[in-house]
Amino acid sequence: MARVALPHLVLIILLSMEAPLAQPTASTKPLAAASDSTDFIEVSCRSTRYPPLCVQCLSSYARVIRQNEQALARVALSVTLSRARQAMAFVARMRDTRGIRPRENGAVRDCVANLGSSVDRLVQSIIEMDQMNKAAPGDDFEWHVSNLETWVSGALTNANTCLDGFAGRAMDGNIKTTVRSKVLDLAQVMSNTLALMDRFAARHRRSSHGRHP
């Protein structure tokens, strides 16, 4: 019985190996588009201070970003806002750390307040970005870009202010190390987003000048 069944088993294996080759067009095209989008993200991230972190944050959104500068900037803002909210919640939980000293507790509370301000500014930046989408090229665009840069820069400043509260050797310890690591990561993401906003604005200006010499 085993000798009779073997040819059938081989046939089944061969058919299963050939099956994925039956529709090359349907599977290859989306993969190629995703690859192009990923390349676009990697090239764009070279304009930031922390390219590997930039790619890490944005690569999973390649299908949404495609090769669109505006979509890239919008996604970067959304990711940054999400990271800021996570960082604020993370730092807030540090207040419940066993044995936390009064000065550490005060620094943590101030940090949470600063990160809350960062979140507010990033929300405003997304609102500004959405309003920009409806604006015609020209002075309105420049005004929106100026507001965007102000909001994101303010968010970055607040994150750095959070770290100022832990300055000095008297604050050294696990809480300072943990908070500093989390907030520095957020600050780097914010810095990258600001660079991508600058890149988007610059390329938009060049394309607008090209249309209206």
TrEMBL record:
This is Pectinesterase inhibitor domain-containing protein. Residues 1-22 form the signal peptide. CDD domains: PMEI-like_3. One of its GO terms (molecular function) is enzyme inhibitor activity. Keywords: Apoplast, Disulfide bond, Secreted, Signal. SMART domains: PMEI. Residues 36-196 form the Pectinesterase inhibitor domain. Its main location: secreted. NCBIfam families: PME_inhib (TIGR01614). It comes from Punica granatum. Belongs to the PMEI family. SUPFAM superfamilies: Plant invertase/pectin methylesterase inhibitor. It is found in: Secreted, Extracellular space, Apoplast. It comes from the Eukaryota. InterPro entries: Invertase/methylesterase_inhib, Pectinesterase_inhib_dom, PME_Inhibitor. It holds the Pfam family PMEI. One of its GO terms (cellular component) is apoplast.
